Amino acid sequence: MDSVARKGMQTGLPALMAPRVVKGKSSIGRSLLGFLLLLATSSTLYLSSRLFSFQDRGVVVPLDAESLLAKCRSLHVKPGPHVDFHSRARSDRYQPGTKAVYIRNATIWSGNSNGKEVLHGDVFLDDGLIKATGDVPNELLANIGDVVVVDAQGAWLTPGIVDLHSHLGGSTPALRGSDDDNSYNGPITPWLRRLDGLNTHDLGYESSISGGVTTSLVLPGSLNAIGGQGLVMKLRPTKERSPTSMLLEPYLGFNGTDHSPEAARHWGHMKHACGENPKYYRDTRMDSVWLTRKAYDTARSIKVAQDDYCEKALSGDWSSLRSRQFPDSLQWQPLIDVLRGKIKVQTHCYEATDIDNFVRLSNEFQFEVAAFHHAHEAWLIPDVLRRAYGKKPPALAIFSTFARYKREAYLHSEFAPRVLADEGFDVVMKSDHSAIPSRNLLAEAAMAHYWGLPENIALASVISTPARILGLDHRIGFIREGYDADVVLWDSHPLSLGATPTQVIIDGILQISHPHTVVKPASHQQAPSAPNWDRETAQALEYNGLPPLEPRHRDQSVIFTNVSHFWSPTAESVIDLLAESAGANSQPSGIVIVQGGRVVCFGRNSSCDVYHSLPDAETISLQGGAIQPALVAYGTGLGLTEIAYEASTSDGYITDPLDSQPPLFGPGGYIAKAVDGLQFGTRDALLAYRAGVTVSVTSPSHQSWLSGLSTAFSLGAPHKLDRGAVVSDVVAVHVSLSHGDSEPSVSTKIGALRRLLTQEVKGDVGEWFQKVANGSLPLIINVGSADIIATLVSLKKEVETKTGTPFTLTIAGATEAHLVADELAEARIGVIVTPTRSYPYTWDERRTLPGPPMSADSLIGYLVKRGITVGVGPRGIGALGHPGVPEMANSRARNLRFDIGEAMLDSGVLSKEAALALATVNLEKLLGLDYHGQQHDLVATANGGLLGYEGKVLAVISPRRELVDVFSTDDVVAPVK
Ligand SMILES: *[C@@H]1O[C@H](CO)[C@@H](O)[C@H](O)[C@H]1NC(C)=O
Ligand SMILES: *[C@@H]1O[C@H](CO)[C@@H](O)[C@H](O)[C@H]1NC(C)=O
Ligand SMILES: *[C@@H]1O[C@H](CO)[C@@H](O)[C@H](O)[C@H]1NC(C)=O
Question: Which of 152, 229, 764, 971 is surrounded by the fewest CB atoms within 10 Å?
Answer without folding.
Answer: 971
